[in-house]
Amino acid sequence: MIDDGIAHALPPESIAQHARFMADYERIRQSEGRGSESADFYLGLPYRDTSGRNREQWQMRARSYDYLVRHLLDGTDRDGRILDLGAGNGWMSYRLALAGYRPCAVDLLTNDQDGLGAARHYRTRLPKLFPRFQAEIRRLPFADEQFDAAVFNASFHYAENYEASLRETLRCVKVGGVVIISDTPWYAREESGRQMLAERRAAFLQSHGIAADSIATLGYLTDERLHRMEDALSIHWDVRRPWYGLTWAVRPLVATLRGKREPSKFRLYVARKGA
User: Fold this and answer.
1) How far is residue 112's CA from residue 259's CA, in Å, rounded to a whole number?
2) How many angstroms separate the CA atoms of 79 and 36, rounded?
3) What domains are there in the chain, each with its CATH number?
4) Which residue range or ranges hold the Methyltransferase type domain (predicted)?
5) If DSSP codes are grouped into helix, strand and coil, which group holds residue 132?
6) 269: which DSSP letter?
7) Which H or E element spans position 174?
8) Number of helices and strands in the chain (H, E)
9) From CA 1, how far away is CA 149, in angstroms rounded?
10) At 10, phi and psi to the nearest 5?
């Protein structure tokens, strides 16, 4: 079914499974001030957050995106097809389309504030709006080897099964193409990741009255988790470390001095599909 340009590709059982997660997530995102009534907000992302509510996060997204385009998609044809996984309001697909690529946006949310419906704001700047699909990553509605690259857009940590999600994504990418994980938190120790999830659940309960754990998403990466994916899928991760600024660089030192847990780090992980 296609509604307002969005192809709804969730099977009935998946709709039921994800219903509470989507409702909780939309509620939290709205409470956090995501989205806007102004088209300028969406058109400025990720370089300018006109709402001022999540400026630091968007600054990090901008640096990840710039690094991705300049260094990781440099071998991809300018009209190459890019799968934008966890596209949210479609900002990355919009930027990729402006750069000449052919993006395809995938997300569970379709609302007009923070989901695929928000992409309506890009119609005035693009000759043709990019395709949008409501779908889950472990069951993508695409043919084998349909895309030149796929990017997990601050979304890989929401997967319930990393290997299954990555295997399905690799299926959709051409031989020689790349799968990129962007803006997913990494920890040196598993314990730090588990503690982060516990802190997040407690914060969500206090702020929103919900724990946001209706689906057991994995939440973070560690070297061990990355190695397991390499072994299971016969891939190799090329780890890139963009510069996110001095504040991000000194976070581990500040946490140590304050007796806090290890803070997350953000990197880009690139796997090339072999024959």
Assistant:
1) 42
2) 30
3) 2-272 (3.40.50.150)
4) 83-181
5) strand
6) E
7) strand 173-186
8) 9, 9
9) 26
10) -90, 125
> Kindly report the CA angle at 265 between 247 and 43, in degrees rounded to 5?
70
Task: Report which DSSP code applies to 136.
Answer: B
State pLDDT tens for residues 179-199: 999 999 999 999 999 999 888
State the greatest distance between any 2 C-alpha atoms of the chain, in Å, as a whole number: 54
Structure confidence by residue, pLDDT tens digits, 215-245: 567 899 999 999 999 999 999 999 999 999 9
* pTM: predicted TM-score of the whole model, two decimal places: 0.94
**Is 16 exposed, middle or buried (CB count within 10 Å of its CB: 0-12, 13-18, 19+)?**
exposed
How far is the CA of 103 from the CAs of 29, 115, 116, 169, 176, in angstroms? Answer: 24, 16, 13, 15, 18
- CA–CA dist 207, 228 (Å, integer): 35
Q: In the chain, pLDDT over 90 holds for what percent of residues?
A: 76
Q: Are strands 147-153 and 173-186 parallel, antiparallel or unpaired?
A: parallel
